[in-house]
Amino acid sequence: MSQMLEGQQVKELVIVLPGDKIEHPHLENNWDSVCVGPGLLCKNGAVYATRTGRLKMSSTNKKYIFYVDSQCKRYIPQAGEFVIGVITRRLGYNYLIDIGASGFVTITDLIFENYSKKNIQHLYIGDLIYGQLFATNNYREPEFVPLDVPKVSVGIAPLPRDGIMFHVPLHVARLLIDPSITLLKTIGKKTDFTLVVGYNGRIWLHSEDINDVVTIMNNVMMLEIFSPQELRTKLSCS
Amino acid sequence: MKETPLSTCERTALTDMVECGLRHDRRGFLEARDTTISFGREYGSCSVILGETRVLAQVTCEVVEPRASRPSEGKLSIAVHLSPMAAPHLEPGGGGGGAEVDALQQVLERNIKESRCLDLESLCIRAEESVWQLRVDITVLNHDGNLCDASNMAAVAALRHFHRPDVLVEEDGRVTVLSHATSPPVPTFMRKVPVCVSYALVCPQEDKCLVLMDPTHVEERVMTGKLVAGLNPHGDITSLVFPGRVALKKEQIMKCLEHAFRRAKIIAEMVQQAVEDDLQTRATEDRPSGFRDKLVSDEEYKRQRFTHLMATKVLTIPTESTEAAVPMEEEPSVPKEQDPANDSTNNELVDDPDDLEESRTSAVIASVTKTSKNKKKVKKTKDVKMDSDSEEEQQHTLLTSQDLQ
After folding, report:
1. Domain boundaries, position A141
2. Where is the Exoribonuclease phosphorolytic domain positioned along the sequence (chain B) (predicted)?
3. Cβ pair B17:A214 closer than 8 A
4. Contact A223, A183 (CB under 8 A)
């Protein structure tokens, strides 16, 4: 679920295994207002789960969206998602970027805004690029556009070399992006930091004090084990 | 699968952190991860969990003909298996991690076989005709760094735990292996307990070298060199491997080894204790329970570790600002009760063994002052460094390019 709509309520239903048939009153009639999301498959008029995880239903005024929220570490590219990639190779004018998926993603060095052949943005192997994926397809490599701020401007530069990048399981990355989770705000009250979350489980973090960087990194990693509510109480009471 | 490429950001971040006296999991520089040794149902089956690194060792035995050059000695062979189960970049059959397997195997062979810690003469049944061959198979279940230490521990514990079947030798030389029911199995005799201790050497700048014990996988990717010492608490050094691109002087290596000896004592005791405990519980039970209740899951380990770190207040950002721009000499605003412990850890490697069981609060002790001139705006540590060499010594004793000229 790459975009959370305003005013959405998410309700957790049951834990499902692949092959389980989903039965819910909303699914029986009015198919127009039902959207079947990741982890679910429609077949012969019935809905089956294809992944292990918690079945969740999110509802706005008219639409119901069902999906399976599973814990995994391997990223599968989805259109519209924001990811952090690492430049691994250079082939002519193209750079190959690894986003943790099965294939590479290519960008050229002219893709940055306001740059021409004369004042090229120099990218080096090992740089981090943040961007959005478009047009993912099982048989082709996804299209990738580097960004500076989501939906606002095409990327000016790779992510700064300061700070640290670390890996988390995908469900932790989704929890961080979830607007209803206030963990980052709690940390933000105590110290300033910049955090860039990629849906592929890569997180870039920067703060003035290196002690804080390590602390925040560990706090975010704790989301894997503790639920956000537990974590909030543990962090705010100490 | 190829290993995920390491970005420049990760590399520089980790070296910067180490330079400031921090490790990414908030351990001390000379602090090892939690170790758990557990045994399975069969004799000689041992699993070692070192943080998130998991290794399983299994000892099996067979009656064979002895080597012509050593007719009254048994045989011992060690085999290491690294598969994609351990890490995604390893290939089945040891393709991707070929170099790793070789290095690991070499260290283990030197430590266990060539050190002759196991009494091979006791494995002899009939000289020149039949001896026991022990085979240790080590499978790495999860690779999170420091495979040498974990595999060594597992192999040694498995060998100590192993009991071979009793034999009946007839007049005409036939050997009958008796089952466990008929005759109780015989324990192996291990004189010394070989231990392997690994140190990662991180060089944030050319002439500065910091030592981390028990590196995790991330730290191993970022380190410039490594020092793997195989030794036993009696004072013998069984193997010493020093790969990488670091130059260290003799005094520095000796310091590392001194520390390694102290650590070896602790590990040897741990292994012996674990073996004895398991053999005792085995004697009382009808059917040994094996690994069933003893293995700690990754989640459980992380939960314990994080709870511990939060209890020692290392994982929370203090509400009072410690970021007043102060000159280098100023006292840090760390809680005062840490300071007595602070002093004892000041003398690196010349201190008492209690430091090795140092609490994780020592991570906070790396005192923190802000140098306003620092371009990177990171807090540098004061004199107290958690590594094995003090800064002053480093400047004098490290080989620089000038020395080599």
Report:
1. 82-161
2. 31-165, 193-262
3. yes
4. yes
Based on the domain organization, do A154 and A170 belong to the same domain? no
Number of domains in chain A: 3
User: The domain spanning residue A44 has which CATH number?
Assistant: 2.40.50.100
Token pair, residue B167, equals: 């034999």
Contact A79, A69 (CB under 8 A): no
For residue B284, the cross-strand partners are: none
Q: What is the pTM of this model?
A: 0.78
Question: How many CB atoms sit inside 10 A of residue B299's CB?
Answer: 10
Model pLDDT for residues B44-97, shown as the tens digit of each residue? 899 999 988 999 999 999 999 898 898 888 999 999 988 888 888 887 766 566
From first to last of the 238 residues of chain A, give the pLDDT tens digit: 334 444 456 677 788 899 888 887 777 766 777 888 888 888 887 888 888 988 888 877 777 888 888 888 888 888 888 889 998 888 888 888 888 887 788 887 666 666 666 766 678 888 888 888 887 777 778 888 877 655 555 555 678 888 899 999 998 998 888 887 778 888 888 888 888 899 999 999 998 888 888 888 888 888 888 887 777 777 766 5
Q: Which amino acid is at B47?
A: S
- State phi, psi for B12 to the nearest 5 degrees: -70, -35
Cβ distance A165 to B13 less than 8 Å, yes or no, reads yes
Rounded (10°) CA dihedral B285, B290, B292, B298: 140
The CATH number of the domain holding residue B32 is: 3.30.230.70
Residues A46 and A19 in one domain: yes
**B88: number of Cβ within 10 Å:** 15
Residues B332 and B368 sit within 8 Å (Cβ to Cβ) = yes
Tell me whether residue A75 is in a domain.
no
Residue A74 maps to a domain: no
Interface of A with B in 155-194 (CB under 8 A): 159, 161-167, 187, 190-191
The domain total for chain B is 1
ipTM > 0.90, yes or no: no
**What's the one-letter identity of residue B168?**
L
Q: Hunting for tokens 């540098």 — which residue is that?
A: B380
Contact: A161, B309; criterion CB under 8 Å: no
CA count, 13 A, side-chain hemisphere, B240: 8
pLDDT tens digits along A192-238: 888 889 999 999 999 888 888 888 888 888 888 888 777 777 776 65
Q: Among A46, A69, A92, where does a domain finish?
A: A69
Average pLDDT of span B9-37: 89
Q: Which of B49, B24, B64, B26 is nearest to B219 (CA)?
A: B24
Distance from CA of B314 to the nearest CA of A (A): 8
CB < 8 Å to A234, chain B: 310
Report chain A residues whose CB lies below 8 A from the CB of B368. Answer: 211
Integer Cα distance of A208 and A150 in angstroms:
24
Task: At B116, list the tokens.
Answer: 């002759």
Whole-angstrom CA distances from B127 to A168, A186, B320 are 58, 73, 75
Q: Which ranges in B225-316 belong to alpha helices (H)?
A: 250-284, 298-311
Of how many residues is chain B composed? 405
Specify the DSSP element, H or E, that contains B56.
strand B53-64
| pLDDT tens figures, B196-210 | 999 999 988 877 788
The answer to whether B224 and B201 are in contact (CB under 8 A) is yes
CA distance B168 to A166: 60
